[in-house]
């Protein structure tokens, strides 16, 4: 065994030296070509290609590949070692296998999809299905040109028929810093299937906590860009994530995968960009405090909850009805007269508006009719009159045209939205529309709008009003859209984005068990799936959790089973660690106990440790206390733009999406976590943030869904 390992190591070391020399030689050759700085278009394009290769090779030379797969294609009788890396490197000889195969290439899919056994393996190539036998699957860790580790996870000749998890477990055991990382060397078969799924469908992925949803989504974007390079462009792909800190946390993955320019945004920022408005939405913290206040005072959630109603398709349809009824009100009363004696009859203007320009949305129609009126004036001015009269007419016409244009509605989204809700005070919105809006929603929104307050939940409606009246310009369309944490997106959000996406090309990922924003999100994936025809959508489930140890996952699963009763529990990868500690506060007192726990965990080798509180106020208080005690610790509140790593204290609801080497859940007791599904979900989110160690500290009694 030891000998086997040594010879494998020697073999890989030799091969690595050869590959690095070859890459280096190619790099030197490219660098020796003088950089073109002239104006010739063809030369510029050639230079851009050379620069791209220079950059790729100089990245690749440090860590050229991470895996090897020995494959014998059926009927070819030749076993080939295929080396797979983040960046593909072709050989100079035509027709030869690449020196390094890009992880996204069709043949590389074997490295991920092959799960063992003696049977033929296969992959989809452009020329059809290719079958063959896999002889070896090997992971190779290279850091800064040094071969650090060689691990065989499958050998055809051995007694072990399946691909082993050993290398994956080694990777998962590493500590994490303040950024999400790529997983190209250990993508699992179930994840690979999603990454490589066809582009044109709306994929809905339910994945348990830590199943790699965010990571998979980012790898999928990189894959789509490689596989469909002719049809998609990075600038027209977007990933929506819940907040700026989360965007910062995931921001390294795409550059690590060699992909730039993909948009990474919050829905809020995108929507405000489309609306091009001065308005800002009310700070999210206000809503968070209402919904995440500890205790049982939270408002009940039903279909009349403002976030749920304004996210429903019923509301979307109401807005369509509302815009339809604006049509007959658009053309101002009365004929248009540019100067006394010249008249353009309203009947004629109505004809242009209602017949000739009917296919256009209202704002476009208005624009065209006004341009036509302008042309009509110019024709009228051509009629023969004296220079003095002409001058007088021109002056009058300019004034009256301006005044007339002002009488037309501008179809500005916020104004239309205000008019809709201020109809409570007798504006002309038909009762068929008003009666459909729940009274509490009408009242609250009218009061907000009176104070010029917009909320995040109003944004889909505002963008839709804009789209209905202005249409979508081609620059705003997407080739592919990823929605992460999609359980917090309403059906209206997704239906709206669908208008901006070519061919329903979506990747929608989330976890209903982490649906802590149930006051605005979906309660079942059918709410999303039903937006698309069955042929346009696909559903995947990710059930294995890669983040946490076996002990943590089993502990969190109990919270799900007893508290949420969702049935979507996680299957752990066999990575064992310390038992979860559930401890009552000791005699030294709450804060002091939390401090000593934090000190103990911070004293270990971990890079990130967090204390999760139930509310923001508690996080602030503890943060001040920890600072006072000399700890170097960050407070994370809803306004953070960056995630710093190290030690942090934050309310549990802001921890969603993040992960820490060790987590201390403060106050894991009945006073803080009520006996309902919502609080059980919160605690589940908190517990599943931990990679290696999880401690829960409490006073008096634990909630019934926590295993002592
Ligand atoms: N195949 C894999 N190999 C190595 N690490 C993996 C793999 N899949 C996921 N991980 C790791 O598991 C952790 C969780 O991944 P990620 O945050 O993408 O999961 P998620 O499903 O979005 O989680 P959550 O919903 O709980 O926020 C990350 O540290 C990620 O690197």
From TrEMBL:
Q: Which keywords fit this entry according to its UniProt record?
A: ATP-binding, Coiled coil, Helicase, Hydrolase, Nucleotide-binding
Q: Which residues form the UvrD-like helicase ATP-binding domain?
A: 186-549
Task: Look up keyword Metal-binding and say if it applies.
Answer: no
Where along the chain is ATP bound? 207-214
**Domain of life the protein comes from:** Bacteria
Q: Does the keyword Phosphoprotein apply?
A: no
Q: Which residues form a coiled coil?
A: 2-33
State the PROSITE patterns in the record: UVRD_HELICASE_ATP_BIND
Q: Which PANTHER family match?
A: DNA HELICASE IV, UVRD / RECB / PCRA DNA HELICASE FAMILY MEMBER
Q: What is this protein called?
A: UvrD-helicase domain-containing protein
